[in-house]
C-alpha cells in the first residue's frame, strides 16, 4: 500500500449512513507521504479523531476503520443511557451520550459483529494504528483519547464507568495514554523500509 497515491485517502465507502476507511490506505497515503516529504515533525491527526478500528493480536485490521460520519450506533444510545448515570458520565468524560462516542459504538459492534468483537485484541484510532506501524508501540495522545468518550478528562486515564458502558471489562484492549508532545518511539526497520 505504500506505493498508493494520495487519492486513496479520500477512499470512503458511502453506503447510506456508512462511512469507512481502509487503514492501510490511510497510512500509505497520509502518514508515509508526510514522513517522506518531511512535511511535519508530528504525525497527522486530521483524519484520526473519532475513527475506530478493531485489530487482531498482530495489529492487523479486522475490517475497515469507521469514521465520524458513521451513524449506525445511534441505535445504541438508549442502551448506554440505561447503563450509566448520564450526568456523571458527562462530567467525567466531557462527552455526551451520542453515537459518535465509543460507548455507543462498542455496543453497536457487539450487537452487529460479535465475531469481529471476539477477535479484536485492541480498538484503536487511525492515528494509533499509524503510531504502532511506525514505532511498534500502541499509544494514544490525550486529544484523541478524549474524542472516544472513554477518557476521564480530569485524571487523564480511561474512565471505568465509560468502559463499562461500552461493554469493556477494563482498558486492556485500549492503548496507553500519552501526552500530545510525548515521544513514543523511533521509526522501526519495517516502517523505515516502507518510507524509503
Short description:
Helices cover 39% and strands 13% of the residues. The protein has helices spanning 23-37, 77-83, 86-93, 102-112, 114-119, 126-135, 142-146, 160-166, 189-195; strands at 13-15, 18-21, 53-55, 65-66, 122-124, 139-141, 151-152, 157-158, 176-178.
Biggest β-sheet strands, sense, barrel? 3 strands, antiparallel
The residue-averaged pLDDT reads: 80
Total of DSSP H or I helical runs spanning 4+ residues: 9
How far apart the termini lie comes to 13 Å
Q: What overall form do the CA principal axes indicate?
A: globular
Structural class: alpha+beta
Percentage beta strand: 5-15%
Write the layout of secondary structure elements.
Blueprint: E1 13-15, E2 18-21, H1 23-37, E3 53-55, E4 65-66, H2 77-83, H3 86-93, H4 102-112, H5 114-119, E5 122-124, H6 126-135, E6 139-141, H7 142-146, E7 151-152, E8 157-158, H8 160-166, E9 176-178, H9 189-195
Helix pairs in contact: 4-8
Short key terms for the protein model shown above:
196 residues, alpha+beta, 3-stranded antiparallel beta sheet, 9 helices, disordered N terminus
Model description:
The protein is an alpha+beta fold. The chain has 9 helices and 9 strands. The strands form 4 sheets. The protein has a 3-stranded antiparallel beta sheet. β7 and β8 form a beta hairpin. α4 packs parallel to α8. The longest helix is centred in the N-terminal third of the chain and has 15 residues. It is globular and about 50 Å long. The two termini are 13 Å apart. The N terminus is likely disordered.
Amino acid at each position: 500500500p505504500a506505493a498508493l497515491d494520495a487519492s486513496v485517502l479520500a477512499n470512503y465507502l458511502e453506503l447510506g449512513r456508512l462511512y469507512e476507511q481502509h487503514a492501510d490506505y490511510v497510512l500509505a497515503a497520509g502518514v508515509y507521504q508526510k514522513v517522506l516529504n518531511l512535511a511535519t515533525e508530528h504525525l497527522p491527526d486530521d483524519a484520526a479523531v473519532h475513527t475506530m478500528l478493531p485489530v487482531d493480536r498482530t495489529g492487523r485490521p479486522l475490517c475497515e476503520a469507521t469514521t465520524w460520519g458513521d451513524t449506525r450506533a445511534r441505535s445504541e444510545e438508549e442502551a448506554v443511557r440505561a447503563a450509566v448515570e448520564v450526568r456523571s458520565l458527562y462530567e467525567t468524560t466531557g462527552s455526551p451520550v451520542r453515537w459518535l462516542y465509543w460507548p455507543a459504538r462498542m455496543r453497536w459492534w457487539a450487537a452487529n459483529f460479535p465475531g469481529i468483537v471476539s477477535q479484536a485484541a485492541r480498538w484503536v484510532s487511525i492515528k494509533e494504528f499509524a503510531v504502532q506501524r511506525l514505532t511498534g508501540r500502541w499509544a494514544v495522545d490525550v486529544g484523541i483519547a478524549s474524542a472516544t468518550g472513554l477518557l476521564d478528562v480530569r485524571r487523564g486515564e480511561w474512565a471505568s464507568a465509560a468502559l463499562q458502558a461500552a461493554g469493556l471489562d477494563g482498558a486492556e484492549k485500549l492503548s496507553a495514554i500519552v501526552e500530545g508532545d510525548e515521544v513514543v518511539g523511533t521509526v522501526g526497520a519495517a516502517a523505515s523500509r516502507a518510507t524509503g
